[in-house]
Every structure is written in C-alpha cells, then in structure tokens.
Amino acid sequence: MNERGDGISMEDLLAASQEIQETGNTYKVPGDQHIMHLLASLAREADVEFGHKGLDMVGRAIVRFGEERGQRIARLVREASRPLTLMNFFIFGDLDVSGNEMTPELVDGELHIRVTRCRLADKLKELGLEKYAEHYCKYIDVALLNGYNPKLQLEVKSQLTRGGDCCHFIYRQPSGSVKTQG
Predict the structure, then answer these.
(1) Count of beta carbons in the 10 Å neighbourhood of residue 12
(2) What structural domains does the chain harbor?
(3) d(Cα 88, Cα 60) in Å, to the nearest integer?
(4) Nearest 5°: phi and psi at 103?
(5) 61-81: pLDDT as tens digits
C-alpha cells in the first residue's frame, strides 16, 4: 500500500479492501457503543458546564428517550396485533444484548434478570467515562418499560454502573396490566 501520502491508486484501494476483508470487525465498534460514548461525553460536558443542573437535564433527556423507545416498541407490538405483555416487550425490544452476560430466573411469577457483564458499561469504563454511565442506567430501564406499558412493573435492585456486582432487574406483570389496545 502507498503510505507515502502522495495520492491513492486503484492498487491501494484494492489492497485496503482486501485488508478490510481480512480484519473483519477487529477495529469496528458497535453502533450502540458509539451512542453510549456520545451520551457519556454529553453528560460530562453538561456536568462541567452546569453541574447538577446539567446532569438533571441529562436525566430528563434519558427518561424522554426511554419512554419514546418504549412507545415505539409498543407500536410495533400493536401493529403485529399482539398484547403489550412482558414477553412481547422482550421479543420486540430494540436493544442488541449480544455480548452481555445475563441469567434469567423465575421467582414466584416474577422475572429476575441478573446482568453480570454489560458491553456498554464495559466500553465506558474503558474510556474512563463510567461516572456518566450511571446517569443513563439510573433512568433508562424504568422509562423504557413505562413508555411501553405503564402498568407493567420493573424494580431495579442493583446496577453495575452504581457499584453492584450485577444489574438485578425484577419484572412484574400484575393481573390486569396487559393492554391489548391504545
């Protein structure tokens, strides 16, 4: 490859294309990690510029974002003529959780999910921005479920980004909480 910086030839382009094929995804970062990096960078700047007021603003934006995502998932479920149950929330959910390590467990009709490795939290820790991941995690999961179906319940017992050894979520679908329309 021409690394002298004096223009690009077709030979250079073909060689680079071949090397891209060989390296695959080695140097690629999943889009959700880029977005989380952006959010943490915005939170950091809001913190530096405005202190607690800036972080409160970031929290409100995360709640709105979560509720809007939940509403979008609900719309997809309704378009498929299905009820707004927890199972459909997971089936139609928009977050790629590959790379996370999680264990589901049913306890007395409640779904407990423990996440012991989160690639988004890992990425922000790698970037030195873990302080700002806490602001996302503090709000997003409850807001997302609330936007989807406010009668469903989520209790967040612990979070990796808030010092826990796992993210421990308890999902509840109380009697009468399943929405079939509107």
Answers:
(1) 13
(2) 31-172 (3.30.1380)
(3) 26
(4) -130, 120
(5) 999 999 999 999 999 999 999
